[in-house]
Amino acid sequence: MNQEANVHIQSLNGYLLCLSRLCGSNYSFFASSYLAESELDIFLSNLIAKWNEIESEANFSISKICKIEYKDLISEISGYIFNGVISSENIAEIGTTNYIGRMLTEDISEYYGLTSTGINKHGVFHPLIGSNVYRVHVKSNVFEESLYFVVRIENIFVLTCFGRKKSIT
Questions:
Q1: How many C-beta neighbours within 10 Å does residue 88 have?
Q2: Per residue in 5-51, pLDDT tens?
Q3: Which domains does the chain have, with CATH numbers?
Q4: pTM summary value
């Protein structure tokens, strides 16, 4: 399992970091790309084992892997990004909220398209719509709730996470 440097995924990671900071200190969003050298379930098992080696107290585990439809994925992402500064309480107008939601989710989706066409100019421009996307149910001592998903783009797996950290008491 080798991490694959991809300029578009690195840019997405920066975009997600910015969004998580707007949501508040208890949110963490990230994206990483890896060479797809095995089947998805083996890749994920190896990745979770590596995470647990690095941070043993986190106790990461996978409870389920299933396909997720684009509209459901976007709905879940929206549930994470509308917090903190960009919460619905802070954005009074419904039209503004809808516009911001559409803009942010389209921006996120576009990074996957740029990744795909950057690897293969004839690749799928909307991999989150035109490819299989897998929701990975990950349990850990780090996040109260989280959304992990993986999409294979050509020869790489792109893993993305939106998480709300557990409160420290």
A1: 13
A2: 788 999 999 999 999 999 989 999 999 999 999 999 999 999 999 99
A3: 7-165 (3.40.1000)
A4: 0.91
